[in-house]
């Protein structure tokens, strides 16, 4: 899907997300239940861009005028596959090749004169950005377009290969531990990972490159990482289910620890935006301008990042004053940031405020206050104001 903007030399290519499947059984199920993620047959003729793909300046203050490309996800392979349909395999997994073909086609539609190409994506598309951004840059160089600055924006695709809260056998996409699913997937899809990352690991260990903190140090292109500290997809594969039953203390500690671990993996990421919220995906949501970390919104942080890259191309100046690009919440539990998106009870659909949410999660105010050496009423006050 393409929205041209003839006056602009900025191009935004967005990779859609939607999990993946990693064997015949769960790919068959996916084909039966989520056909639009397996085939283009039922895709609409046009789509409306939202969030960073919106052409309304109110919704998309800095990128509304760019050329927008939405690449739907029908390869189920985290944008990594390079295998066509064969005798052995009923499905084709060609995510990496789809991106290359789209680039070839866009060159004839004005991409050849671009100044900046921002490869963005959410969820599996966010991981797809990490896996493909350098390859896109190399492809354009080989085609003779050295002048295009290629950058990445990875939203909700920075996963941890951590230990699950409760170990389960790898039966389907949702219960399978993150490493095991990717291990199986990469073989099934004939998935490819960037050469520079591959070289860091032994043969057969390429699955490591699907995890942001392992591939990021090997990337050449600048990448901006957007990641909720308490990502719902991460909690799902870690078997932390936050519906119905109050959360046990072990789970609560696991969740807080997850936030700490994630924060740790982002400390050397130059450009990042990581709010302490329980959510998944943000850049194509129409409320994406509302979330703030330390008083800075995401569109603003991306604008600052654009400027910093523009400035550093001219001269290695110090970071711009009042224009931060490394924004990570330091408060320790889900939704301790007051600008987090509204939480709804997954059963009733009712909106909850932070205190209701924490109570629903089995958060024990007395006990927590004691641990922090505070009066319970003071702790409640701090929670509701998000300090």
From TrEMBL:
Record GO terms (molecular function): palmitoleyl hydrolase activity
Pfam families in UniProt: PAE (PF03283)
One Gene Ontology biological process: negative regulation of canonical Wnt signaling pathway
Protein name: NOTUM carboxylesterase
Domain of life: Eukaryota
InterPro entries: PAE/NOTUM
Family: Belongs to the pectinacetylesterase family. Notum subfamily.
């Amino acid at each position: 899907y393409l929205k041209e903007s003839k006056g602009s030399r900025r191009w935004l290519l967005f990779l859609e997300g939607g999990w993946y499947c990693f064997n015949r059984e769960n790919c068959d199920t996916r084909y039966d239940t989520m056909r639009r993620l397996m085939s283009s047959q039922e895709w609409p003729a046009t789509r409306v861009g939202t969030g960073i793909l919106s052409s309304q300046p109110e919704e998309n203050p800095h990128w509304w005028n760019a050329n927008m490309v939405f690449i739907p996800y029908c390869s189920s392979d985290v944008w990594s596959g390079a295998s066509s349909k064969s005798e052995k395999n009923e499905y084709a997994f060609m995510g990496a090749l789809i991106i290359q073909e789209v680039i070839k086609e866009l060159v004839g539609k004005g991409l050849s004169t671009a100044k900046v190409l921002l490869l963005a994506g959410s969820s599996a598309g966010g991981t797809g950005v990490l896996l493909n951004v350098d390859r896109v840059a190399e492809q354009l160089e080989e085609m003779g377009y050295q002048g295009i600055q290629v950058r990445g924006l990875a939203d909700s695709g920075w996963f941890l290969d951590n230990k699950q809260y409760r170990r389960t056998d790898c039966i389907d996409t949702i219960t399978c531990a993150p490493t095991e699913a990717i291990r199986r997937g990469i073989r099934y899809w004939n998935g490819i990972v960037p050469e520079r990352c591959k070289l860091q690991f032994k043969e057969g260990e390429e699955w490591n490159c699907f995890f942001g903190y392992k591939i990021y140090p090997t990337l050449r292109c600048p990448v901006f990482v957007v990641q909720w500290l308490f990502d719902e997809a991460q909690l799902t594969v870690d078997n932390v289910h936050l519906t119905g039953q109050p959360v046990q203390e072990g789970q609560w500690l696991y969740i807080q620890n997850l936030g700490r671990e994630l924060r740790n993996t982002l400390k050397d990421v130059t450009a990042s935006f990581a709010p302490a919220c329980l959510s998944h995906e943000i850049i194509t949501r129409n409320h994406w301008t509302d979330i703030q970390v330390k008083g800075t919104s995401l569109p603003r942080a991306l604008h600052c990042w654009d400027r910093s890259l523009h400035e550093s191309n001219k001269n290695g100046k110090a970071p711009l004053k009042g224009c931060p690009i490394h924004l990570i919440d330091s408060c320790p539990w889900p939704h301790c940031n007051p600008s987090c998106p509204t939480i709804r009870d997954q059963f009733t659909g009712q909106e909850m405020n932070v205190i209701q949410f924490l109570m629903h999660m089995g958060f024990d105010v007395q006990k927590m206050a004691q641990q922090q050496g505070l009066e319970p009423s003071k702790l409640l006050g701090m929670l509701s104001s998000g300090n």
